[in-house]
Design brief:
Number of helices: 2
Helix content: 10-25%
Radius of gyration: 12 Å
Protein name: Transposase
Strand content: 25-35%
Largest sheet: 4 strands, antiparallel
Length: 74
């Protein structure tokens, strides 16, 4: 499944909104200073501001452009 990839610069990630039954965040890889967040949809502007998310791309984890963009911020 192709997903949206983000780097969270403050180790926060979006939680499900009230009334939402779908899982939005598929996985989170937490490190000391950042987190890599895999989402099923694009993050909203509020989520981007609150969690300090940086967009890394849409696709599979193994895609070259995803890896390249994640390495920029890690």
């Amino acid at each position: 499944m192709r997903n949206y990839w983000y780097v969270s610069l403050n180790n926060k990630y979006p939680l499900p909104m009230r009334g939402q039954h779908k899982r939005v965040v598929m996985s989170v890889q937490m490190k000391a200073e950042y987190s890599i967040v895999e989402m099923t949809r694009e993050a909203t502007p509020v989520e981007i501001d609150h969690c300090k998310l940086v967009y890394c791309g849409f696709g599979y984890w193994k895609d070259e452009h995803i890896q390249k963009n994640i390495k920029k911020y890690v």
